[in-house]
Amino acid sequence: MSDNKTVRFGILGCATIARKLARAISLAPNTTLSAIGSRSITKAETFAAANNLPATVRIYGSYDQVLEDADVDVVYIPLPASMHVRWVVAAAEKKKHVLVEKPAAVDVAELDRIVEACEVNGVQFMDGSMWLHHPRTGCMQELLSLSHSHSKSVGPIHFIHSSSTMPTTPEFLENNIRVKPDLDSLGALGDLGWYCIGAALWAKGYQLPTTVTALPDVTRNAAGIILSITASMQWDQPSQTIATIHCSFLSYTSMDLAVCGSNGSLHLKDFIIPYQETSASFDFTLGAKFVDLHIGWNVRPEEVHVANNLPQEALMVQELARLVSSIRDGGNRPATKWPEITRKTQLVVDAVKKSLELGCKPVAL
Amino acid sequence: MSDNKTVRFGILGCATIARKLARAISLAPNTTLSAIGSRSITKAETFAAANNLPATVRIYGSYDQVLEDADVDVVYIPLPASMHVRWVVAAAEKKKHVLVEKPAAVDVAELDRIVEACEVNGVQFMDGSMWLHHPRTGCMQELLSLSHSHSKSVGPIHFIHSSSTMPTTPEFLENNIRVKPDLDSLGALGDLGWYCIGAALWAKGYQLPTTVTALPDVTRNAAGIILSITASMQWDQPSQTIATIHCSFLSYTSMDLAVCGSNGSLHLKDFIIPYQETSASFDFTLGAKFVDLHIGWNVRPEEVHVANNLPQEALMVQELARLVSSIRDGGNRPATKWPEITRKTQLVVDAVKKSLELGCKPVAL
């Protein structure tokens, strides 16, 4: 179903994650999948059939044809990072709004070309950090909000730990696009590390750290691509905050986030992909102290359950569609919030890489 | 009540934590508090009265008198770290078994003098890491055990994160023994960091790391004592494991431990002091994967509750008393397990300090 209010999506490429997004577009209100393009029309047709895409979806044998389609408002670009600058700029020049998979670019220089093209062409930019759109994230943000009275807030943040690891096969570690120098040269840092760095920045209200330091434990594949890395982020103002991040393609499925402030802490173990699709939870304590003799605590963690009416990726699509509508139909300017978040994340990704190149010296931002 | 089987404790000093141990000694079976000594007899008397110590407890105005007391088998030494070498060696020479608060010594050189004195004199040495004696710790160890079939074990460990932070007052940060160069020169690293490092070593079955690296975010008080520090431990054999640790006197009450292996993970947020005294819990997953489309997980964390018949500090006292009995009454040799654990912890503490002195360069062990 498509009417004047519908926001029409096109997808460039048939990446695995495109299946998740195609479903999200079908779930979100007032959005529709209008077109999908692949370099091979057979691949696009196979994708459409395998995912039961409606017959109304136009299937193209090139990315350009999706961008030429006047009935596409937004393109989702799950291509390898090295192709983002070319295809996002091309999309923006065709006045298509863009949703780009992470890492948004191979470095901030390319990202700046991307963001500038979006600005010049008046189109919305957003990266695919789905977890930011889950209502759980908003709930946690409330707890972190310093506008609350001190007793109801975690308080100024002192420490953040965020990790994202997943197991892969030997075949993945040599051949997956995420570990190919000419495709996703940032490896695990750009893929899983994007979330860890993003979570630390989110917890700090998107204040950039003062310095970023890689740890010496990096693991690379034969082509030199990062498979596993640990790093820290340090903020010096207004008071010191430390974040440790760890990401790896060589471990087990995990995605932990812990945030510790002056008056509280929050913890979750599924921050990127919630355990289940219809609700998610996190734990927090506020005002925790040890009881007399230090034989226990005065509080236990409270578990907060947050229901979501749509999966987080559909909420992301819905938010993007809302912005696109307000530009297309309301004459508004694109929201700067999303490219700003992306750029800060990319700056820190770049700084971790630079620290590594400098022998794990701190890199100032 | 004291009979031939009773193990008789003396305490040197009236530190706050001595209250907790006095209670633990009264709770543990077959142990009794026989004597307490302070440099001021008035202080010792006040402590005895405030804590309702039985009239049978002998109260001394010096530490030496406790060591001279023939009816004391074990002494608990919660004195500042700089005094450990003097008083543990003195106790060992009087054939007293020893329970020493952490940090066990100011450095491994002093610890070696301590451990040697205990060996030469045939007395048991143990440090006050209470959490190692909680049955929860044993339960978690089962999950980490590689002797299990792979599907029931966390598998070879890839990543460990451990943090211990607590809020303090400005007065504490200048005057507490734990931040005085002549008393506890290791500051937060020797105090809270002892647990974080100990937990990482525990998870790795007490294999020493290959290298230890401090991060540049250290905070010190005016006297140069560490108030907050972050570090990493790296094992290269048989495969890579990374641990990040963080400890701080400048934050909120937290004590997190996360262990991630090839096939599972476990998490707890109260590893040093359980939320409540009679049971404790931890979470784990085994074999976690994302479901199709990555819209959720195939498992959710299981929460394991472990009841304990005695508080963990009483279980520590009970274990020490068991060893003391077996030496005193059974003619056995002291167990080497406990001083070995202590020495490895101290080695890593020293390496973190050395890395810091070297400008955060990795220190090989």
Automatic annotation (TrEMBL), chains A, B:
UniProt-recorded Gene Ontology molecular function terms: nucleotide binding
Residue ranges annotated for the GFO/IDH/MocA-like oxidoreductase domain, each copy included: 151-266
All residue ranges annotated as the Gfo/Idh/MocA-like oxidoreductase N-terminal domain in the record: 7-126
InterPro entries, per the entry: Gfo/Idh/MocA-like_OxRdtase_N, GFO_IDH_MocA-like_dom, NAD(P)-bd_dom_sf
Recorded superkingdom: Eukaryota
Coiled-coil region(s): none
Family, as annotated: Belongs to the Gfo/Idh/MocA family.
Protein's name according to its UniProt entry: Gfo/Idh/MocA-like oxidoreductase N-terminal domain-containing protein
Protein's organism: Crotalaria pallida
Lineage summary: Eukaryota, Viridiplantae, Streptophyta, Embryophyta, Tracheophyta
